[in-house]
Write a structure and sequence with these properties.
The protein has helices spanning 2-6, 28-37, 39-58, 66-91, 99-116, 121-146, 150-169, 179-186, 203-229, 237-259, 269-287, 289-299, 301-306, 311-337, 348-358, 370-389, 394-420; strands at 10-11, 17-18. It has 421 residues and is mostly helical. Helix 5 (99-116) packs antiparallel against helix 6. It is globular, with a radius of gyration of 22 Å. The relative contact order is 0.18. Mean pLDDT is 88; it is low at 1-29.
Length: 421
Amino acid sequence: MSALNNTATQAGPGGTPRGPVGGAANGGVGIVQFFTSRLREIGIFIALIVIVLLFQALTGGRLLTAGNVSNIIVQNSYILILAIGMVMIIIAGHIDLSVGSVAAFVGAVSGVLIVQWGMPWWLGILLSLVLGAVVGMWQGFWVAYVGIPAFIVTLAGMLLFRGLTQMTLGNTQITPFPTEYRQLGGGYLFPDLFPASSSPAEWITVALGALTLVLFVFSQVRQRAKRAALELQNEPRVWFLFKIIGGGALIAYLTYLLGVAPGSRGTPIVLVVLAILIIGYSTVMSRSVFGRHIYAIGGNRTAAKLSGINTRRVDFLLFVNMGVLAALAGIVFTGRLNSAGPGAGNLFELDAIAASFIGGAAVQGGVGRVVGAIAGGLVMGVLNNGMSLMGISTDVQQFIKGLVLLLAVAFDVWNKNRSRG
C-alpha cells in the first residue's frame, strides 16, 4: 500500500500530474502504472514497430532497404502533412472531408499559374498557399461564425472544390512542371554534392542525422530536468532510458538507410519539410495558449466558452490552417507526379482521418497529438507498402486498412471505458 500511496498525485498546471519525482514511479509497479496510463500514446508506437518488423520478415528484408524507406517517406508525405492539420481539427471536435478536393484544386491552380501562364515557380507556390488560406477562411466562416456543423460544410466543400478542379483543368492534365517545383515532392537535398559513385556516404544526411540525435537527447534530458525542478511527476527512469536508447537507435538507423546504406539517395526535401512541421506544430499544441485552447474546446466547448476562450476565432483559425496544409499537400503531390489531374487527391481525406484516429485522437475530441497522427500515418503507409511488396491485391489492402481503423477506434473506446472504471 505504501508503494501505491507514493505514486498518488495531485493536479498540476494544465492538468499535469504533480507529485514525487522518485518513489514507486521508478520501480516495477510504477512502470506498469505508467504504461497503462499512457497506453493510448505509447501503444501506437509499439504497433508501428511490430508492423515494421512483421513486414520486414514477410518481405524477406525488402521493406527496410534504403530505396524503399525513401519511397515510403515520399509516397506518404502529403498524407502526413494533411494528418497534422486533421488531428488539430479532430481535437477541437470537428472533421474536414474536403482536404483531398482542396489539395487537387490548389494543385490544378498551381499548374495553370506556373505551366500555362509562365509564372515563376516560387511565386506560383506562394500564391497557391495563399489560395489554400482563402479556402480555409471560406470554410471556417461557415463553421465558426454561421454555426453550420463542420461535417456539412466540408462535405459541401468536397463537392465544390472537386468541381472547381475539373472546371480549372477542363478534364485534362497539366504537365510538365519546372524542375524546382518537382523537387519539393520528390527531390533530395543537394544530390550532386556527394554522389554515390565517388563518396562512401551522403555526408549532408549523416550530419543532419547526427544533429537530430544530439537535439533529441538534449531535449529529452532537458524536459526531464525541468519537470523535476517543478516537482512534477516524471516518467519512470527505466522507461526514460529505453526511450532515449530506442529513439537514438531509430534516428541512427534511419540516417544509415538514407545516407550510407547501398542504394541510399540522401535526404528527401519533403522529409525536411515534415520535420519542420512536426516540431513546429507539436510546440504549438503543447506549449502555446492557442494549443491549450484547442484542447479545451474539444474537451468541453461550453466550459471553454464560459472560461473566456473565443471559440469562434479558434475554429476559424483551425480551418485556415487546414487550408494552408491542404494546399501544401497538393503542391507536394503535384510535384511528385509532375502532373495536375482532375482525379488528384482522391480519398486523401479518409487517409488523413484514419491516420489521426489510429494515432490516438479521440472520436469525441479533446485528445490527440501531432506525433501520434504522424505515427498513425506511417502505420498506414507501411501497411500499404508492405502489402504491395507481398503482391497483395488492392481490394484486400482496402479491407485490411478498414479493419485496422475500426480496431483503432474500438481500442480508443475501450481505453476510455477502462480509465473511467
